[in-house]
Amino acid sequence: MELEGKKAVVVGASRGIGRAIAVAFAREGAEVLLASRREEALSGVLGEIASFGGRAQGMAWDISDCGAAEEKTALCRELLSGLDLCVLCAGVIDRAKPLAVTVEEWDAVMNVNFRGTYFAAQAMAKDMLKNGVGEPKGKILVISSETGFQPSMMPYGASKWGVTGFTMGMAKYLFPRGVVLSVIAPGPVTTDMMNWKEGDSDAFPSAFGRMASTEEIASLAVFLASKKGDRIAGRPVFINGGLDW
Fold first, then answer.
1. Contacts of 62 (CB under 8 A, 6+ apart)
2. Is residue 1 part of a domain?
3. Residue whose C-alpha is closest to residue 7's, from 235, 225, 238
4. Does residue 138 sit in helix, strand or coil?
């Protein structure tokens, strides 16, 4: 198994990409701590992981509460008795046009996607730097979006532009210190964020004529989290079916 013995946190694990990554990590042998704004929302994925003998538990974490990031990170280490991997996948979307965005809409998206993700990554990195000798001391995987290269989509695209930017800078600082920070930038994925529902056609104008599945994103996350991904840091890894952004 690629992640046997690893202690992993997946923030935003109740649905979509985060849920698929949590399940994939557990299948690959990791002990997984699932986090969501509402802990009760994790019951379905916890049951799925338990069904194949995986090890998982849940906790509440609203990453828009930036002041709680270090406290929540310390709790993650305590609950897992260690901390090797962290996936930051919590996100919200608003499709307002640039000249129609309100302050409230802007803040609601930025506080989770950009501000919250930054301070969660910062807290996780500071904690992982305390790990003993080893290469690496820990890995942080941030889920951005190819929409970060379409920042005219306000405020979601702008928030992901910011995420991609800070992860590139933070990764450059962390890598020589032993923490690997990687970024996945998916294109359209079959999630409810894309208004996709089970049973819908997922036809899409990509090279493969469809959206990516959440499991395909999760497979990439497993690769990056494993030893095979030890040298991949900072630059976004696109998984977008050949779409021209």
1. 37, 68, 116
2. no
3. 225
4. strand
pLDDT at 196: 56
Q: Give the pLDDT confidence score for residue 241 in this predicted structure.
A: 73
Report the domain count for the chain.
1
Domain for residue 244, yes or no? no
Residue 86: CATH number of its domain: 3.40.50.720
Q: How do residues 59-108 score in pLDDT, each as one tens digit?
A: 999 999 999 999 999 999 999 999 999 999 988 877 767 888 899 999 99
pTM: 0.91
Tokens standing for residue 33:
């701590």
Quick one: which H or E segment has residue 87?
Answer: strand 85-88
Q: 10 Å Cβ neighbour count for 43? A: 11
Owning domain of residue 12: 7-239
| C-alpha–C-alpha distance, residues 184 and 204, integer Å | 20
Which helix (H) or strand (E) segment holds residue 121: the answer is helix 117-128
Q: What distance in Å separates the CA atoms of residue 26 and residue 54, rounded to the nearest whole number?
A: 5
**In this structure, what token pair is assigned to residue 163?**
């995420």
Q: State the residue for tokens 């992640």.
A: 3
One-letter amino acid at 177 equals: R
Check residue 204 and give its pLDDT: 63
The larger pLDDT score, comparing residue 211 to residue 58, is at 58
Between 240 and 193, the higher pLDDT residue:
240
Sequence-distant (6+) residues with CB within 8 A of 71 are none
